[in-house]
Amino acid sequence: MATQMTPTIRTTGLEALYLAAVDSNVSLVTAVAGYPITRVMDRFLENNTDTGIDAKWTSNEKVALESALGASVSGRRALVLTKHVGMNVLSDPLVTSVTHTIGAGLVIFAGDDPGVIASQNEQDSRWYGEIAEVAVYDPSTPQDAYSAVMRAFELSEQVSAPVIVRITHRLEISEGSLYRIKKAQHDTRKIVFDRSIWAITMRGKHEKLHLESYPELVEETEHTPLNKLTMGSKDESGHGNIYGDGNVGIISSGYPSALVTGVMDKCTGISHLELTMVNPIPFKAVREFVKLHKRILIVEETESFIESHLCVLDNVFGKITGHIPYGQVNVRHIEYALDHINEDTINRHTDIQTIASRGTRSICDDCPYMPLYHILHDLDVMVAGDLGCSVRSAPAPLEAVDTGFALGSSIAVACGFEEKGIAVIGDFGLAHSGIVGLINAVHCGFDVVVIVLQNRIAAMTGGQDVPDLTDVVRAWVADVTIFSIEMGMDDGENEYGDSLLDIIQGKMEKRGVSVIFIRGKCRKH
User: Fold this and answer.
1) 106-111 and 163-167: which strand pairing?
2) Bridge-based pairing state of the strands 28-31 and 54-57
3) Backbone angles phi, psi at 450, to 5 degrees
């Protein structure tokens, strides 16, 4: 395949990710909005006419991956964009696709949120590499991001399985040089699904994975140039060095690797093994690196993924030993850990963040649903909240909802209450996965009041359009009410002239499932 070299440019991690997908001849991009992935999808949508890439927002992450799998088996390279919690949703087809095998390259950008800027939990997507037995890249710079994505598509086709590239907001906004390789002539030979896999049993497919495909991943991770080794130099000043002459080594991955590089510029005697390909872990390379140093510091975010594989060694330190905090890692954390590298355990990172210490992230003052939250606060009823704006009504002073487990979960959660309760869900959450909980509620005969906040957008993720499921719900649920909170009881669409409180109380007295669509307009979008 002919390639065209382009001059080195200075760009951001976000642009590098986008250019890598374009240069990899991606045909389909599917995504679910959420921090920090929305900005990546917006980049594709801004230029889909120029690139010819088919970019689609999807209702949930499982659908996003399934559509991408359809593209892959028919010979189209595909990219899935999801935030870290979306990995939980798409994990079912992900795990099976690895032994089922695919066709053209399929890559998943998993957008993690170290520090929990805009998420319901702090989760590390690297673990899905082990769960699904797929390759995972965790780049640190724009150049590494570009190179990792380019290689990820090739590797996906080589082993006939999806590949995960973990990204974060700090990687997206980071700046650096990029040497772009633009393919002047794409290989027109289609890589499609090989049906011969059906001659193998389900057990045989897993055996084939470990006999053929996974060893290729191990070979890749041990020899990829994306994993870089920098050996520390001895201190020639004559004043000594608190880190010793090459006695301390750092193993890192992801954006923290860039921070480690900056720290190393200030001191000598430290070696650095930077892992851009983190699954499979290159155990041979890591083993040799550990042997060369008296003490090893693992610098990674969010969880102790690398460290957990090495913590049986008594000279490895990181999150488990208290040297590095869980979650987001900053330069001061690395410097403090190095200053205390000769201590076996540290108890510095023990603070538990509270809303009082962090500051509130409340619902907008002019939110049209504020009257509803005040009503829910005053009702002596368990209220299941959903992920989205409504979950911000859980803390004081509103204290409107009691729980908030996952996007689309509130209806099923409320069905489990000891006494009849209320489920509050946004229309995006309903389309994402809540509709399944509603179907189950009716089918199983649960008693629950479902309040759908129908503003027809995904408000917290940028105002993406949401499908109107009113008619779908009416086809399944006998008791459906539409209430416009904008117009109150004077709106001609209201099926009841009563106040919202009266409607909710009336539904609570009924048996079975009742749904109230409360229509309002988000002031932000």
Assistant:
1) parallel
2) parallel
3) -105, 120
Using CA atoms, how far apart are residues 78 and 396, in angstroms rounded to an integer? 44
Q: Which is nearest to 253 in space by CA: 294, 217, 214, 307? A: 307
C-alpha torsion angle, residues 170, 356, 345, 140 (rounded to 10): 0
Is there a contact between 66 and 25 (Cβ–Cβ < 8 Å)? no
DSSP state of 94: H
Q: Of 180, 290, 284, 165, give the one whose Cα is nearest residue 223.
A: 284
Helices (H), 340-447: 355-358, 370-378, 410-415, 427-429, 435-444
Could you give the CA distance from residue 394 to residue 400 in angstroms, rounded to a whole number? 5
Check: pTM over 0.90? Answer yes or no: yes
54 close to 48: Cβ distance less than 8 angstroms? yes
Output Rg (C-alpha) for the chain, integer angstroms. Answer: 26
Q: Alpha carbon of 230 to those of 251, 270, 522: distances in Å?
A: 10, 9, 52
Number of other residues whose CB lies within 10 A of the CB of residue 1: 9
Q: Judge contact between 299 and 260, C-beta under 8 A.
A: yes
Print pLDDT tens along the chain (525 aa): 555 666 789 999 999 999 999 999 999 999 999 999 999 999 999 987 888 999 999 999 999 999 999 999 999 999 999 999 999 999 999 999 999 999 999 999 999 999 999 999 999 999 999 999 999 999 999 999 999 999 999 999 999 999 999 999 999 999 999 999 876 444 546 899 999 999 999 999 999 999 999 999 999 999 999 999 999 876 555 444 445 567 999 999 999 999 999 998 887 789 999 999 999 999 999 999 999 999 999 999 999 999 999 989 999 999 999 999 999 999 999 999 999 999 999 998 888 999 888 888 888 888 999 999 999 999 999 999 999 888 999 999 999 999 999 999 999 999 999 999 999 999 999 999 999 999 999 999 999 999 999 999 888 888 899 999 999 999 999 999 999 987 654 444 444 446 999 999 999 999 999 999 999 998 888
Segments in 370-499 forming alpha helices (H): 370-378, 410-415, 427-429, 435-444, 470-476
d(CA 10, CA 2) in angstroms, rounded, equals 24
Alpha carbon distance 105, 155 (integer Å) = 8
CA distance 16 to 43: 11
Give the H/E segment covering residue 70.
helix 61-73
Distance (Å, whole) CA 109 – CA 287: 29
For residue 362 the two structure tokens come to 């409340």
In whole angstroms, give the CA distance from residue 97 to residue 280. 18
Helix axes 13-23, 38-46, angle to 10 degrees: 50
> Are the C-beta atoms of residues 125 and 88 closer than 8 Å to each other?
no
| 3-state SS class at 232 | coil
Q: Hey, what are 323's tokens?
A: 């040297």
Residues contacting residue 509 through CB under 8 Å, at least 6 positions apart: none
